[in-house]
Every structure is written in C-alpha cells, then in structure tokens.
C-alpha cells in the first residue's frame, strides 16, 4: 500500500499527477494503490475539488 499525502493540497497534486501519467481512472488508481476512493473524494471535496471522469482529474 502506498502512503498517500495527508495534506489535501499535496494530495490533490499527487492524485492528479498519478491520474495524468499512470491511470485511466480514479478507480484504477485506488485499486492499484489499495487506497480508499471515498476517503480521497471526501478529502478533496473539503477543499472544493470533485473528480471528473471526462477529464480523469480532480477539478
């Protein structure tokens, strides 16, 4: 399991970089990294970001 950054702004940058460079979807990223998709969505929602399937990024 990859340890994800705890700071929401750093998590945003980390997740978007991984999505852009390595994964076709948030579900694929979470499956590969053994991460909790709902927790990621909630943390990033707390700073105003939502996942866009179309863009494969949090915007």
Features:
59 residues; mainly alpha; two-stranded antiparallel sheet; 53% helix; 7% strand
Reconstruct the topology from this structure.
Layout: H1 8-21, H2 26-33, H3 37-45, E1 51-52, E2 57-58
Antiparallel strand pairs: 1-2
What does this structure look like?
This protein is mainly α. The protein has one domain (8-58). It has three helices and two strands, in the order αααββ. The chain has helices at residues 8-21, 26-33, 37-45, and strands spanning 51-52, 57-58. The protein has a two-stranded antiparallel ribbon. The radius of gyration is 10 Å and the shape is globular.
Q: Report the sheet with the most strands, covering strand number, pairing sense and barrel closure.
A: 2 strands, antiparallel
Number of domains: 1
Order of helices and strands: HHHEE
The helix/strand class is mainly alpha
Mean pLDDT: 97
Total helices: the number is 3
* Quantity of strands, as a count: 2
Query: How far is it from the N-terminal to the C-terminal residue, by CA?
Result: 25 Å
pLDDT < 50 stretches:
none
| Major sheet strand order | 1-2
User: Which percent range fits the helix content?
Assistant: 40-55%
Radius of gyration: 10 Å
Strand content: 5-15%
Choose one word for the global shape.
Answer: globular
């Amino acid at each position: 399991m990859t340890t994800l950054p705890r700071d929401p702004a750093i998590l945003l940058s980390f997740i978007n970089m991984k999505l852009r460079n390595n994964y076709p979807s948030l579900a694929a990223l979470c499956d590969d990294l053994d991460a909790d998709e709902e927790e990621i969505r909630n943390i990033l929602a707390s700073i105003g970001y939502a996942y866009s399937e179309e863009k494969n990024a949090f915007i």
